[in-house]
Amino acid sequence: MHNKTLVAVAVGLGLITLSACGSTDTESGTDSKTVTLVSHNSWSVSKNVLKDFEKQSGYKVRVLEDGDAGQAVNKAILTKDNPQGDVFFGVDNTLLSRALDNGLFQPYTAKGLDKVGAAYQLDKDKHRVTPVDHGDICVNYDKAYFSEHKLTPPQSFADLAKPQYRNLLVTENAATSSPGLGFLLGSAAQFGDQGWQDYWKKLKANGVKVVDGWDQAYYQEFSGSSQGKKAGGDRPLVVSYASSPPAEVIYAKKRPDTAPTGVATGTCFRQIEFAGLLSNAKNPKGAKAFIDFLVSKEFQEDMPLNMFVYPVLQGAKVPAEFTEYGPAAKDPETMAPGTIAANRDQWVKSWTSLVLK
């Protein structure tokens, strides 16, 4: 997702461990002219676009970023009485209820929200969070591997449990990783509350490998990513994003005619990311201005090639590379926020004892 090389592909989806500690001096960003953004390590924006915001608003932006999603939301909840920033970006629909139930955010209706698609406004009655982007968590495959082995790539959740794909899939831990959790929720949406456990028993018997987070899965284990090849990754199937193939093309030293990786379109789960004004933020005024900026046309059109996610603003242009190499899934699995809230923690617990023990 950006110039941090492919690391960006993580797609605004990690969240954060927040390694920086907040202090109260102006250097640490708590003065009224600084707005502090807390985000995951895939946060990225073009320098000129951020400068435009700073110039127009009069605020300087300080960014705290580090790590993957579950940890980050938990850390933000633990520090909510004395938050490390003003705005949190990167909580997604898989973890939204945890953040809202714990009072992480205070309400704010962003300017321009009326131009954001209604399907993305999952807290439209209270406006505690503002939708910023969406993407699809999907299994990616290494085209060269399947071609060499004269094997048809899997296209559905059910395919992944078939014997011809034994020992080929790597996924992330659903308890610690946002894409890992999204993949679990996708399987629950596909097979139902009863059926998903049987499905994972089959995946386990079929040799699925589980690692902590997306970086490890994609860059070390997956044979199709540029870094994975160097790291000796030997798994040609990985849980990643529908927008990972365009990132492989864009960041290749020599741009290939086609993406080296493909997407199993029947394995996708729709993810929506939000930003929110943190409860007890020291600079709420600056935070509100920054949230407005996140749904502005300038930021929304800058975002895809920086964070490899899709805009939520109606009419925002999507880069040609996305259309060509990583179109959004036509019919991704989805799940109502209430269903996720009611089941997520129990499902993750069951998944952990079923798959990791």
Attribute tags:
357 residues; alpha/beta; eleven-stranded mixed β-sheet; 13 helices; 11 strands; 36% helix; globular
Summarize the structure.
With 357 residues, the protein is an alpha/beta fold. Helices cover 36% and strands 17% of the residues. Helix 5 packs across helix 13 (337-356).
Task: Map the helices and strands.
Blueprint: E1 34-39, H1 47-57, E2 60-65, H2 69-78, E3 87-92, H3 96-101, E4 105-106, E5 130-142, H4 143-148, E6 169-172, H5 178-205, E7 209-211, H6 214-221, H7 226-231, E8 237-241, H8 244-250, E9 261-263, E10 269-278, H9 284-294, H10 297-302, H11 304-307, E11 310-311, H12 320-325, H13 337-356
Parallel strand pairs: 1-2, 1-3, 6-7, 6-8
Antiparallel strand pairs: 3-10, 4-10, 5-8, 5-9, 5-10, 5-11
Q: What is the approximate shape?
A: globular
Strands, count: 11
Oligomer category: single chain
**Nearest-integer average pLDDT:** 89
**Helix content percent band:** 25-40%
Q: Residue ranges: pLDDT <50 for 5 or more in a row?
A: 1-29
Biggest sheet descriptor: 11 strands, mixed
The DSSP helix count reads: 13
Q: Which structural class do the helices and strands define?
A: alpha/beta
Radius of gyration: 20 Å
- How far do the termini sit from each other? 34 Å
Give the helices and strands as they follow along the chain. EHEHEHEEHEHEHHEHEEHHHEHH
Measured by DSSP, the beta-strand proportion falls in 15-25%
